[in-house]
Amino acid sequence: MDLCKTPALAALQEKIATRQATVGIFGLGYVGLPLALRFSEVGIKVLGFDIDQVKVNAINTGKSYIERIAASTIAHAQAQGFNATSDFGRVSEVDALIICVPTPLNKHREPDLSFIISTVEAALPHMREGQLLSLESTTWPGTTEEILAPRLLSRGLIPGQNCALVFSPEREDPGNPHYGTKDIPKVIGGITPTCLSVGIGLYECAIQTMVPVSSPKAAEMTKLLENIHRSVNIGLVNEMKIVADKMGINIHEVIDAAATKPFGFVPYRPGPGLGGHCIPIDPYYLTWKAREYGVNTRFIELAGEINHYMPQWVVGKVMDALNDYGKPIKGSRILVLGLAYKKNIDDTRESPAVEIMDLLQSKGAEIAYSDPHVPNFPRKRDYHFDLHSESLDPDNIASFDCLVIATDHDEFDYSKLYEFAQLIVDTRGRIALGEKLIRA
Question: Of 100, 195, 278, 402, which is the active-site residue?
Answer without folding.
Answer: 278
